[in-house]
Amino acid sequence: MKSAVCPGSFDPITFGHLDIIERASKHFDQVIVAVLENRTKSSLFTVAERIEMISENTKKFSNVIVDSWYGLLVDYCAKNNIKSIVKGLRAVTDFDYELQMAQVNLQAAGVETMFMATAPAHSFLSSSLVKELAHYGGDVSTMVPANVNAALRKVQAGK
Ligand code: PNS
C-alpha cells in the first residue's frame, strides 16, 4: 500500500490544507494527516482540538486518517513505514524553508517530499493569517471550515 503523510501544525486547518489533503488522497492509497509540533510557532489550539477539527472535515475521504506525533517527522515515517511526505507550496516565500526540511528529511531517512502547488484561490492563506484576522474579529468564514470558524469565534468571545 502506498501511503503518504501530510504533516503540519494545522493550528487550525484551513481550506488550503484541505485542498492539498484531498488532492493527495487521489494519488496515494492512504494519506495520513499528521499533527506535529512546530517549535518556531506557539499554538492556539491543543493537539486534540486540532485533530477533532481535521477529522470532522476529512471523514468524507475514505483513505484519509488523522494522527499526531511528538518528535521528528522522519521518526514518524520510519515507525509507520511511510516513504513520502506531501506538502503544499503557496509561493516562493515558502520555498527556502520547505526545501531545507525536504533535504534534511531525505538525507536523514531517505523520505521523499513531494510538493503540490497550492490552488491559486488559497495562495495567500495561512493559519497564522487566519488567527490574526479572527483575533481582531475579522471574517474568516471563506478561509476555514465551519467548525474551525466556530472554534475561532469561541476563542475570540472568551477573550
Ligand atoms: O504547518 P507547519 O507549521 O509549516 O508544519 C511544520 C512541521 C510541523 C511539519 C515541521 O515543523 C516538522 O516536521 N516538525 C516536526 C519536527 C521535525 O521533524 N522537524 C524537521 C527537522 S528539519
From TrEMBL:
Tell me yes or no: is Transferase among this UniProt entry's keywords: yes
Q: What is its EC number?
A: 2.7.7.3
Q: Which SUPFAM superfamilies match?
A: Nucleotidylyl transferase
Q: Which keywords does UniProt give here?
A: ATP-binding, Coenzyme A biosynthesis, Cytoplasm, Magnesium, Nucleotide-binding, Nucleotidyltransferase, Transferase
Q: What's one Pfam family the UniProt record gives for this protein?
A: CTP_transf_like
Annotated ranges, domain Cytidyltransferase-like: 5-132
- Gene Ontology MF terms: ATP binding; pantetheine-phosphate adenylyltransferase activity
Indicate yes or no for the key word Acyltransferase: no
Q: Which Gene3D superfamilies match?
A: HUPs
Which HAMAP family does UniProt cross-reference here? PPAT_bact
Q: What is this protein called?
A: Phosphopantetheine adenylyltransferase
Q: Which organism is it from?
A: freshwater metagenome
